[in-house]
Design a protein that fits this description.
Elements (H helix, E strand, L loop, with lengths): L1 E5 L5 H12 L4 E5 H6 L3 E4 L2 E4 L8 E4 L7 H6 L6 H25 L4 E3 L2 H4 L3 H10 L7 E6 H10 L4 E4 L6 E3 L4 E3 L3 E3 L1 H6 L3 E9 L3 E10 L2 E7 L22 E4 L3 H13 L4 E9 L4 E7 L5 H7 L3 H15 L1
Parallel strand pairs: 1-2, 1-5, 5-6
Antiparallel strand pairs: 3-4, 7-12, 8-11, 8-12, 9-10, 13-14, 13-16, 14-15, 16-17
Helix pairs in contact: 1-11, 6-9
Length: 324
């Protein structure tokens, strides 16, 4: 049997894979993190700890996401307390559930995995370091809290600098819309107006792009798509500033063998069995590595390029379920 470890909402790719599993005769069960955390049952006795969350006959686990973003804030907001105490409570509850989740994943670590909790915890800093070790090029990068250090970096980057989140960017919700933190360009005016010290931030030299590449990795194979984001001023800095009226043109893409070889080394070094990789093809012809998301949504690559990645993931899970 296949266990899909996911979260409740915004899991279109996961649900399409489930459709293919059903069509191909796969046996699977899905466990959403919020459901598990709301009904934890660890029974301690002289025989050990009984943890009854997934069936015993599960042979392979596919980690997609875990608890929903609104799980803990929803609890906290019902508390009658000051803002400071609410933040303290939220931090504490996150720590509590993190320990329970780690214990759960540890209890099934002997299973075969497609992606795993440990892969998801790999930081962007670790990815950039591993990319350099693998022979890939990355943008000139700086992590700092100092305006003086940023000024030097800005001047030596010819005034072309962007800033992005070090971790996964959060979403901010209102009644009728939501906002997310994306890559932004730092210009002279922005630099002049920031304080002498600020919260720790990641800056990179902006690469002049010919186009962007989104690459899905599965079972030692890369499925690449080119995104012509430079043809639209709205998506020049980051293609995720989607122009829904006039979407970027996207086409299947064949990576050079040299880049494929280096990416394989990278994924093995990071111990990642799957993931969505972001690259840039610079105007100089160089390929620049940005990051890899081990649980990235891959429908945006699958559908335009006719890769049928959802079917390939389902076939991989079924094959490994039988093999194990």
């Amino acid at each position: 049997m296949i266990a899909i470890l996911s979260k409740r909402d915004l899991e279109i790719s996961t649900e399409h894979v489930m459709d293919w599993l059903q069509a191909l005769g796969g046996s699977f069960v899905r466990l959403n993190g919020m459901d598990m955390l709301k009904s934890v049952n660890y029974n301690f006795n002289e025989d050990g700890i009984a943890k009854t969350f997934i069936p015993e006959d599960v042979n392979i686990c596919w980690f997609r996401r875990w608890a929903d973003d609104d799980f803990i804030p929803g609890i906290v907001m019902n508390s009658d307390s000051s803002n400071l105490n609410l933040l303290t409570l939220q931090s504490h509850l996150k720590s509590e559930t993190s320990i329970i989740s780690k214990s759960f994943f540890s209890s099934i670590k002997g299973k075969k995995w497609l992606s795993s909790f440990s892969e998801v915890s790999t930081t962007k800093i670790e990815m950039l370091e591993a990319a350099l070790k693998s022979g890939l090029s990355i943008p000139r990068s700086l992590i700092t809290t100092s305006k003086n250090e940023l000024r030097v970096f800005f001047d030596t980057s010819e005034g072309k600098v962007i800033s992005k989140c070090i971790s996964d960017g959060p979403f901010f919700y209102s009644q009728d819309e939501f906002l997310s933190l994306k890559t932004v360009q730092i210009d002279e005016e922005t630099l002049e107006n920031i304080p002498e010290t600020f919260f720790v931030s990641l800056f990179q030299q902006m690469v002049e792009k010919e186009y962007e590449l989104r690459v899905f990795y599965l079972d030692h194979t890369f499925y690449a798509m080119a995104i012509f984001s430079q043809l639209d001023g709205q998506t020049t800095v980051d293609f995720r500033n989607y122009n829904l009226r006039k979407p970027n043109r996207t086409v299947p893409y064949t990576l050079p063998l040299e880049i494929v070889s280096k990416l394989k080394i990278l994924m093995e070094d990071l111990n990642m069995s799957t993931g969505s990789i972001d690259l840039i093809r610079a105007t100089s012809g160089e390929y620049i590595f940005l990051e890899v998301n081990p649980v990235g949504q891959f429908g945006m690559t699958s559908l335009p390029c006719n890769y049928y990645l959802e079917k390939k993931v389902a076939q991989y899970l079924i094959a490994n379920d039988k093999r194990n």
